[in-house]
Amino acid sequence: MFRLQIERFIRSRIVRRALALGIIALSGWALLPYVTYRIAPSAFVNAELVRVTAPIAGQLSADLPRKGEYFQRARLLPLVEARSPDRRHLMDLDQQLAVSSKRAELARRQLEEIAELDRKLGERSEVYRFGVVARLRHEIGETEAEKGGCLAEARQRNDVAGRMERLVRLGISSQIRSAEAQASQEATTTRCQMADERLQRLKTELESAEKGIYLRGDANDVPYSQQQRERLVLRRQELETELLQNSSRSAQLAGEVAEERARLERLDHYDLTLPAAHVVWSVAASPGSMVTEGQPVFDFADCEHRFIAVELPERDFEKIKAGEAAAVRLIGGREWKTGQVRQVRGSAAHADDRLLAARVPRPDPGSITVEISLPRDETSADRSGSCDIGRLAEVRFERRADGLLRLVSGKLKWLTAGLEPDQPFL
């Protein structure tokens, strides 16, 4: 009886119509996304990698991050410690600096000695000048006295010669005595003239000596002390030039030594700043092992700038524009997120040479690759330890109204005429 009632209920017209309407509604609900959206057949999460290589040869830190470790904030990590840095250049710079400093110090001491010697030679020159001036003044005094005596004798000789001439005219004296008196008068006059000329010469020498110029026959224009001072001036100029060169060279070498020491300190160890919002994707070296310069250590995946790699037919190239929005849902998840198209590449483009976490297959002929940026999701990174990289996703691009109308009209024509559609049904 109960079985007959169930069969009668199932075979009733109302139930069959309700079931048919439900199946039609379910089919429409399943087909609606393909009508209102452009759905990608395949998509997955990807991210760029940051490869860390050993900048110097040495021993790795024992506290290397593990694979899958996520860094929510940046932190400093001692990465490599050098064992035997090359210090030959530093030793050579130290030696050059020591030599330049010694030469500069030697030139400085020589300048000080030359300054002391110049002071002494200056004092000697002044003493010599004062002595010469005093001697010339004494000689001038002697010559003036001699000239005075000579003039007095000349006056006497002139008086005697006049008397002898009068006696000769009176016949008292002979002509010979008168000639001797006149000769003696001329000799005295000549000696007085010589004394006057010597006095003028001494005054000229005194005037020059007061200015530091000496005119005696046994000396040059300046004394030996002054000549030595002039030689010291030339030597001082040479030493000042040498001191300036060595001081400049020392200052330059000191800067180079400081830079080389800082470089060696940097080479003694290398500290790496682990970036925030990154996850350790792979580790290529063991903690505490020895590495060479340029050897890969580990790779970081950038979780903050993840993107979805999507393949679409080539005919959709003009319909997908950079900057447009796209709905993204990770397979296995329920939350839809809004991404943004950042790049569209055709199938004939060169292969992507970026260092990526997930392998990107080469697009099939007639397909394009679209990259869609994802918003940052720290909870997903902390939960999975891989930032969902490599996870499959579903991507929907919203169709434009005009495109949707063309699609519907094309399908209707195909259904009514029984012809093939202009565009395959998505």
Q: How is this fold's topology laid out?
A:
Elements: H1 2-10, H2 13-36, E1 37-39, E2 42-46, E3 49-53, E4 58-60, E5 70-71, E6 75-81, H3 88-170, H4 175-210, H5 224-268, E7 269-274, E8 278-283, E9 290-291, E10 296-302, E11 307-313, E12 325-330, E13 337-345, E14 367-373, H6 378-384, E15 393-398, H7 401-417
Antiparallel strand pairs: 1-15, 2-11, 3-10, 4-6, 4-9, 5-8, 6-7, 8-10, 11-14, 12-13, 12-15, 13-14
Structure, described:
With 426 residues, this protein is α+β, with helices and mostly antiparallel strands. The chain has three domains: 1-38; 40-74 and 279-398, Beta Barrel (Elongation Factor Tu (Ef-tu), domain 3), CATH 2.40.30.170; 89-249, Helix Hairpins (Orthogonal Bundle), CATH 1.10.287. The chain contains seven helices and 15 strands. It has helices spanning 2-10, 13-36, 88-170, 175-210, 224-268, 378-384, 401-417; strands at residues 37-39, 42-46, 49-53, 58-60, 70-71, 75-81, 269-274, 278-283, 290-291, 296-302, 307-313, 325-330, 337-345, 367-373, 393-398. The strands form three sheets. Strands 1-15-12-13-14-11-2 form a seven-stranded antiparallel β-sheet. The protein has a four-stranded antiparallel β-sheet with strand order 3-10-8-5, with no helix packed on it. Strands 7-6-4-9 form a four-stranded antiparallel β-sheet.
Helix content: 40-55%
Provide a count of the helices: 7
The arrangement of helices and strands along the chain is HHEEEEEEHHHEEEEEEEEHEH
Overall tally of domains? 3
Largest sheet: 7 strands, antiparallel
Structural class: alpha+beta
Low-confidence stretches: 418-426
User: Count the strands?
Assistant: 15
* CATH first level of the largest domain: Mainly Alpha
Strand content: 15-25%
Rounded Rg: 58 Å
How much is the average pLDDT?
79
CATH architecture of the largest domain: Orthogonal Bundle
